[in-house]
Amino acid sequence: MPDKQHQLGFETLAVRAGQHRTAEGEHAEPIFPTSSYVFENAAAAAARFSGEQPGNIYSRFTNPTVRTFEERLAALEGGECSVATASGMAAIYACCAGLLKTGDHIVSSRSIFGSTTLMFTNYLQKFGIETTFVALDDLNAWEAAIRPATRMLFLETPSNPLTEIGDIRALSSLAHKNDCLLVVDNCFCTPALQQPLALGADIVIHSATKYLDGQGRCVGGAVVGSREVVGQDVYGFLRTCGPTMSPFNAWVFLKGLETLRIRMQAHCASAQQLAAWLEDQAAVRRVYYPGLASHPQHALARAQQTGSGAIVAFDMHGGTPAAWKLIDATRICSITANLGDTKTTITHPATTTHGRLTPAQRAEAGISDGLVRVAVGLENIDDLIADLGQGIA
Ligand SMILES: *Cc1c(COP(=O)(O)O)cnc(C)c1O
């Protein structure tokens, strides 16, 4: 592996970055399922513990397989460093717990993952960290919500399920003008389609559970950013408080990264075809997909993403009964709220992911009763269109 990793292309880094071959000469990356590491003698142990000598001590602190995943993901996001976590939620929690304190304030997009909203309102709130939620695409609202105590701006883009786009460049200027960190959950695009750090974000969050694995096997997450912020404060929280990634899961994810770009390109190509087909169906009132010219932020999506992603949402005429009928008529799509899998999934947000909201809250969030979300997998696209077509007919 040459030193100057930044000169290598994405596909090369995805396959090669972070591998440190052992004396066995293995070609594929090994898994190191070990909880602790041994030292030559007592003096070496003391030097390792005092930090005088670098190296492994215990797998809550460092593990070679986990490190390979971290280095590979950091290279793909263009970040100095990354830390792997037990889940995507653990990544968001480690980021907040490592960087914030009582009295601090977060401004967050209101269109974020449900558990993230609950973490902000039910748990961070308990420790005196408040959150104000704003509309993702309303820059004035973000600016108006910032207080002297605001330390962090948080968003996902594209949003779930309506695929609204947040302007990462504009929000990063706003964050930095106000001495805040911009944190972007890059789960939907992955670095194969969008690199938030290059657009000015300070921290990237991942739920590796989704496209980084890409085959629905393991739960994991990561935080990517600078050595100073992520390598010190977020890592410090993780190694002490413990929501670290297992070496086996790290191995699954690091192998997933090798095929990330070609998988994302295939997901995007199928999603684009499906979205275009849906727009022509009389039973469909509206289609939400950033790759369609009809998407209100199509130009912004094209400016900051190299692909439109694989989440397609559409509003059926006829509300919940029509949406349920369509979902139940499918034979290939899996009825599940997960996404980022080779297998296409289909959900009815109003009665599942957004079911706990009141009708008024749902209306404000734009979640209509006829809305259906499809996370397009890697099956044959003609089969998928036929599968949805029999439900729509
Ligand atoms: C799934 C998801 C998470 C949470 O990740 P887990 O791995 O399930 O903990 C966070 N953000 C987004 C956008 C997600 O889709």
What does this protein structure show overall?
This protein is 40% helix and 15% strand. The protein has 393 residues and is α/β, with parallel strands linked by helices. It folds into two domains: 5-258, Aspartate Aminotransferase, domain 2, CATH 3.40.640; 261-392, Aspartate Aminotransferase, domain 1 (Alpha-Beta Complex). The strands form two sheets. Strands 1-7-6-5-4-2-3 form a seven-stranded mixed sheet, sandwiched between helices. The chain has a five-stranded mixed sheet with strand order 8-9-12-11-10. Bound molecules: pyridoxal-5'-phosphate.
Name of the CATH class of the largest domain:
Alpha Beta
Total helical segments: 15
Largest sheet: 7 strands, mixed
Please state the second-level CATH architecture of the largest domain: 3-Layer(aba) Sandwich
Mean pLDDT: 96
Tally of individual domains: 2
Shape: globular
Bound molecules: pyridoxal-5'-phosphate
Proportion in β-strands:
5-15%
Radius of gyration: 22 Å
List how many beta strands DSSP finds.
12
Trace the largest sheet across and list its strands.
Answer: 1-7-6-5-4-2-3
Low-confidence stretches: none
Oligomer: single chain
The N- to C-terminal Cα distance equals 54 Å
CATH topology assignment of the largest domain: Aspartate Aminotransferase, domain 2
Portion of residues in helices? 40-55%
The string of secondary-structure elements, in order, is: HHHEHEHEHEHEHEEHHHEHEHEEHEH
Task: Please identify the structural class as seen in this structure.
Answer: alpha/beta
Query: What is the CATH homology-level superfamily of the largest domain?
Result: Type I PLP-dependent aspartate aminotransferase-like (Major domain)
